Give the backbone structure.
Amino acid sequence: MTEQITKSRNNNFSKKINGKELNFEIHSNVKNFNKCDWRRVVAVFLQGLDWEFADWPKDESVTSILLKVKGFHLKYSDLPVSENIKKWNVKVLEIHRNKRHIDVSVQNEFWTLMEQFLNQPRFREKKKLINN
């Protein structure tokens, strides 16, 4: 069963997970994030380039960040995976250039992984985002 996603103009949307409506924000730049903003980051889409973490907190390594934030790499199935993506804790999601009708399965995989990630103690206990 596909769940309804509500989208707004400000790159914000909500999604029902475990019976609770969660609000998500999409940001393409984290340069002006404050401590409160950083505590709310739950996922990042990466290309595998070193500079992608340039504006992230300097006191944390990429390895440490990707233990706290779910990392994703979206790529076409016929392209190679970069060396950084291979060594980082990142889930590779593949879409096919000529089979776009199966993109929905990748979307479902993404939300399944996000739900599992959000159900981890960091979110369940500290943030009380999801009720079990």
Notes: DSSP finds five helices and six strands in the chain. Helices lie at 35-39, 62-68, 83-87, 103-118, 121-127. The chain has one domain: 5-127.
